């Protein structure tokens, strides 16, 4: 265990009010900085970064290099980088992602047999610690770590791996059951198929952090699309 003095500075706490978090997975990577600036200027205060390894999920995306490439502009806007790891052996990447500028790191319950250890390592690295559940994983699966080690719980409302999938309707009931079982201090995030028509149902069920990829960056005007989802969700 590292001493507190050896750790990175502790990141800002996650917002407690309802927020929409654009996912850069659907951004135009040839002009990533400009796309990030567009949603920051529209008011986004959480940017979601999907890391995929070609093993836990078939696609390969990006890692710490992309986090560090956007970190300054995100932090200058007093926004947070919310990293969603869809990778095996997530504990190997924590220190580097924290150094790159991640404010929260979420690992999959299904990807590590040592969730307790991994969440503790994320906090030790100075980041908010998150755990995600795939659609088929029971809602109560985080009960043993929720009180002591969890800052964020993520309900996947699609199978992880790709943007622009259909929202799984059963997720609304799962969000409700997850919220009921979590301490008040744990932020509940929903990810997958969230857009103008599904956002309000997620909020009503208890989610406060709403990830939106294709609905924002797939639109002709990402800032306008972001604002429309914020309005539909009643978010800040
Ligand atoms: C999917 C990713 C999502 C993705 C969501 O596995 O975790 O964050 O970007 O994309 P949309 O909002 O298009 O479903
Ligand atoms: Zn995600």
Report what the structure shows.
The chain is 34% helix and 18% strand. The chain is an alpha/beta fold. The longest helix has 13 residues, at 64-76. The model is unreliable at 1-7 (pLDDT under 50). The site of zinc ion (ZN) has 6 residues, from strand 2.
What ligand species are in this complex? Answer: D-xylitol-5-phosphate, zinc ion
CATH fold assignment:
TIM Barrel
The share of residues in extended strands comes to 15-25%
Shape: globular
* CATH class categorisation: Alpha Beta
Whole-number tally of structural domains: 1
- Tell me the helix content: 25-40%
Ranges with pLDDT <50 over ≥5 residues? 1-7
Largest sheet: 8 strands, parallel
Order of helices and strands: EHEHEHEHEHEHEHEHH
Please identify which CATH superfamily we are dealing with.
Answer: Aldolase class I
Q: What is the correct CATH architecture?
A: Alpha-Beta Barrel
How many helices? The count is 9
Strand order of the largest sheet: 1-8-7-6-5-4-3-2
Look at the structure and give the mean pLDDT: 96
- End-to-end gap: 38 Å
Number of β-strand runs:
8
């Amino acid at each position: 265990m590292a001493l507190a003095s050896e750790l990175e500075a502790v990141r800002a706490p996650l917002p407690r009010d309802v927020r929409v978090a654009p996912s850069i997975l659907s951004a135009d990577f040839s002009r990533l900085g400009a796309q990030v600036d567009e949603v920051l200027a529209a008011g986004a205060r959480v940017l979601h970064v999907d890391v995929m390894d070609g093993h836990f999920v078939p696609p390969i995306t990006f890692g710490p290099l992309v986090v560090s490439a956007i970190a300054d502009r995100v932090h200058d806007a007093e926004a947070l980088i919310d990293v969603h790891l869809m990778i095996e052996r997530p504990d190997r990447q924590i220190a580097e992602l924290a150094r790159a500028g991640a404010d929260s790191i979420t690992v999959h319950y299904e990807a590590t047999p040592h969730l307790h250890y991994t969440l503790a390592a994320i906090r030790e690295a100075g980041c908010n610690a998150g755990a995600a559940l795939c659609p088929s994983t029971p809602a109560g699966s985080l009960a043993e770590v929720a009180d002591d080690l969890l800052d964020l719980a993520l309900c996947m409302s699609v199978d992880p791996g790709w943007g622009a999938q259909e929202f799984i309707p059963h997720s609304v009931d799962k969000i409700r059951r997850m919220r009921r079982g979590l301490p008040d201090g744990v932020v509940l995030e929903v990810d997958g198929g969230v857009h103008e028509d599904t956002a309000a149902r997620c909020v009503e069920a208890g989610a406060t952090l709403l990830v939106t990829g294709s609905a924002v960056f797939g639109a002709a005007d990402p800032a306008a699309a972001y604002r429309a989802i914020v309005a539909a969700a009643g978010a800040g």
